Amino acid sequence: MMKTIQLLQYSFNGRRTSVLFMMIAMILAAALLFTVNTSSTSLREGIKQHSGVYEMIVGAEGSGMQLTLSSLLRVETPLGNIPYSVVEQLQKDARVLKAVPIGLGDSYYGYPIVGTTADYFTPFRPALPERFRLVSGAWFAKPGDTVIGYEVAKKLNLKVGDTFFGSHGLNDSGEEHHELSYVVTGILEPTGLADDRSLFTPLETIWAVHEHMEEPGSKSAESGDDHDQAATAIMLKVKQLGFAPGLKQELDRMDGVQAVFPLLYFRQLYDVFQMGERVAMILSGVAVLLALLAVVFALWGGLAQRRKEFTVLRALGMPRQRLIGSLLMEILMLAACSTLFGFLLSRLAFWGIQQYGRWEWAVSLPSVPSEPILVLYCFAILLIVLSLCFSPLLLGFRRSVHQSLQDMN
What we know:
By secondary structure, the protein is of the alpha+beta class. It has 13 helices and 13 strands. Part of the ABC transporter complex hrt involved in hemin import. Responsible for the translocation of the substrate across the membrane. The complex is composed of two ATP-binding proteins (HrtA), two transmembrane proteins (HrtB) and a solute-binding protein. Belongs to the ABC-4 integral membrane protein family. HrtB subfamily. InterPro entries: ABC-4/HrtB_transporter (IPR051125), ABC3_permease_C (IPR003838), MacB_PCD (IPR025857).
């Protein structure tokens, strides 16, 4: 066994450049397959997480997609406001399990400030587990108190007890509100949702800050409603799914109000992402094919030299079985190392995609394990390619040493 390993070491040392080229090509091919698969799986899980929390969202009339994205992902400009009387009406409705109002429109260094109630953080039913937990501090209790998401605390280095002023609008270029100071009372544990990039405060805080302001172009401004009697959206959890269609029809008949099913819009988004996923899979397949062809050409280019090396070793008395064993071990090592390093490189690439998604799109892709079958699939592909490339060497062992030496001459 030791002599076989030494033989492999001598073989690799004598072909460092070609072995390094093959390894890089196969590692990149494997990493591309793993990264595309992991990213698409993570995206699918992220959509499921965001769409499965509330069955319905109520807001101002306009784009249903915009209402969904602004309320759940907070990546779109809110449509406007609806009267708070709609919230009170839904909270009294026997068909509604929970109606949670949110108020949007302000931010802190680009992170959205969400006005809401304590119901946002509590389980939908008493017997269910807690939906949110605090890393430190306590829940908000009065206007100005703020519970911040994990990413906000991490990126802005905020701690319990810190104070700040919010800015008007969803970016940090808006006018700063000095009417009321926010104080950090708690920091949330990571959720993997848009809540990690949000700051939560009582809805009364938003009302107090905007007491003498009107939202330009908002429904509340046009109708004459004061901002302190309004909500941007209402997150609805119904007692039974069968209640949802009728409730939606009633809400849609209200003036300036619409109700949407977020699951439908997330499905539309997923359909768009699936098209992109198919294109990515095709492009990655082409890239993998080109990488494997490069490996094939590199191996076939050195077959003549390898054949001469094995012929000389056999002439010097090296047993045929040992040479075949070293060749098979070389194939296994190349395939295994390429798969392993490709997998590690893909995890690094996926981590980079997660960070980019958080910064550029305000979307947190959940971490997902790679499918074991994909690892085996990738290893099998590389093993087959290498075996096909080395098969002429294996067939060459059927010839006698005398015939092989004559061919060399």
